[in-house]
Amino acid sequence: MGKSKNAQAGNVFVIIMLGVVLFGALMFIVSRGVNESPQSISDKRARIIAADVLSYAQKLERAVSRLLSHGVSENNISFENPRVAGYNYAGCSSADCKVFDPQGGAVSWQSPPEDANDGSEWLFTGGTCVADIGQGGAGCESDGVSNEELIAILPNVKPEVCTEINTRLGISGIPVNAGGGYSVTKFVGAFADDEMPDNMDGLSAGCFDGGAGQPGYHFYMVLNAR
């Protein structure tokens, strides 16, 4: 009878210890989930996304070049699309001047790949210049000369993707923007002095840290240097 009670007590002790171990393992997994950023992605995933972003940006650049080669004025290029409003304007009233039309630039609208950024859509602006690209130099954002580029912007890129994009472009690290950045004004046929990303001189594409003035990491591709 004594042996039976001892065996039962031993079994209860084992069950209790097993519960303690399982509870500890559960708490470890939960704590890891809390401490690890849900925004982080693997290096492999970052490489795939960076390749997709660059590939699409290059398609956009070729589409703009195609329109210009067909005689479309740079002021008549339209980024009207089925996803983001605000790009439709009277300067482009036919399909042949639209980037996202089979009879124009022949590029299909694509939202950024999942995990590329915070979900923000592509932005197309004519209010940003890049020093030493086209005719603009230092101070081109406020020189009163119409030398702003036609630029595609992918805002709020994840840092892992930003790093991989720059690696592929041969850019060391992630340049930090001290005060300028990029214009958020959508392109509807007009170019205007507005912004210039710092430390990106001579780079027709790249990803930079927006700093205090424009928090986050942002990728741009010059579609038409001016």
Mean pLDDT score, rounded? 88
* Percent of residues in helices: 25-40%
Through-space gap between termini:
96 Å
Which geometry do the CA atoms define?
Answer: globular
Whole-number radius of gyration? 26 Å
- Element order: H for helix, E for strand: HHEEHEE
- The main sheet orders its strands as 1-2-4-3
Which percent band covers the strand fraction? 5-15%
Regions with pLDDT < 50 over 5+ consecutive residues? Answer: 28-38
Count of structural domains: 2
- DSSP helix count? 3
Structural class: alpha+beta
- Strand count, sense and closure of the main sheet? 4 strands, antiparallel
The total beta strand count reads: 4
Lay out the secondary structure.
Layout: H1 2-35, H2 43-69, E1 123-128, E2 149-157, H3 159-169, E3 205-209, E4 217-224
Antiparallel strand pairs: 1-2, 2-4, 3-4
Helix pairs in contact: 2-3
Describe this structure in words.
The chain folds into two domains: 36 residues; 183 residues. The protein has a four-stranded antiparallel sheet with strand order 1-2-4-3, covered by helices on one side. It is an alpha+beta fold. A hairpin with a 7-residue loop joins strand 3 and strand 4. Helices cover 32% and strands 12% of the residues. The radius of gyration is 26 Å and the shape is globular. It is built from three helices and four strands. Helix 2 packs across helix 3.
